[in-house]
Amino acid sequence: MRMLAVVLLLSSANANATGRFAVAGGDAGVACVSTARTLPKLPVRITLALPDTGAARTAIVTSRLPQACHALAGGDLPGPFYALHVDHAVADDGWFGVADFGGTPRASIRQCTSMEGVHLTAWSGRPLHGRRLWHAYVYLGYDVDPTCSESETQDVPPR
After folding, report:
1. I want to staple 34 with a disulfide (CB 3.0 to 4.6 A). Which of 26, 61, 77, 132 is the partner?
2. Does some domain include residue 158?
3. Total tally of structural domains belonging to the chain
4. Is residue 93 situated within a structural domain?
5. Which domain holds residue 67?
6. How far apart, in whole angstroms, are the C-alpha atoms of residue 74 and residue 141?
């Protein structure tokens, strides 16, 4: 699995880092996002960062779901879950990404693995060198080769 950083340049600056980012995933053309952020009005346009490929896409959060889509169902994520429409094709064989609802103008997104899951992080500046803004963990349920550093897996509260 290749690990790349995706840099997002955004103009909005009204959300804090905790509510700004969320875990997104898709499989077989169906995608969703898990966010604790309150979304009273839908649809909502977001930036979807795909750190495994280095791509960033425009996506639209369209509706609340009664449960997670297949890609996030076993990930031990709290929800709530929302359907996600991605403007450009994303891999059909399963993917994880970071939904960015907007905020600080520059964030770097990184993905790495631990023993049984994927860690997604957002950083101010370069990953591993800047300040970590956000962290999420997606449980995979099977062993993978660890690639994370300690700074990516620690549960550090945002500053």
Report:
1. 77
2. no
3. 1
4. yes
5. 6-153
6. 8
How far apart CA 147 and CA 76 sit, in angstroms, is 20
* Beta-bridge mates of residue 97: 24
Question: Tokens in use for 44?
Answer: 């909502």
Tens-place pLDDT, residues 57-113: 899 999 999 999 988 998 899 899 999 998 776 766 788 999 999 865 678 899 999
Amino acid at 76: D
The pTM (predicted TM-score) of the whole model is: 0.81
* Each residue's pLDDT tens digit, 120-131: 999 988 889 888
Sheet holding 106-113, edge to edge: 6-9, 106-113, 117-124, 131-139
